[in-house]
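Problem 12. The chain below contains 146 residues. Write out its predicted structure in token notation.
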Amino acid sequence: MVREIVERKLESLRRCIQRIQEKCPPDLETLVQNIDLQDILVLNLTRAVQLCVDIGTHLLSDHELPPPETMGQTFDHLAHIGVIHPELANRLKKAVGFRNVAVHDYEEIDLRIVHAIARNYLNEFEQFAKAVHDHLQIEDGQAPAY
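Solution.
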């Protein structure tokens, strides 16, 4: 059951990444001038972060660890059990910080940061998805895809 949930969430994460890639303008000025693009990017970035946390929580439910006290700690626990690399955990914890600003202080979002994440850091979500996929493969006794 956990695997099915995780796979559905991975597919949602893939769609968020795809939507960001499709809608992110090449220049910051276009983003600043277009509130619809701002909303699309921010919504999908926050969803991507939330999906990563949700996936992590489901994966951790199979391990005898105390539940994470924070969203960011989810990634520390995933690194501890070897699902993701500690460096990726640290980068994803920063993404949680972005998500918190986006959700709680929407007017304070720096569009330069949104644009930079959308243009340069989506690979972190992709690395997370690949690590989770590989982890599921290993749990099933299969070799991870490289």
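Discussion. Residues 20 and 40 are 7 Å apart (CA to CA). Students who got a different answer should revisit the alignment rule from Section 12.3.
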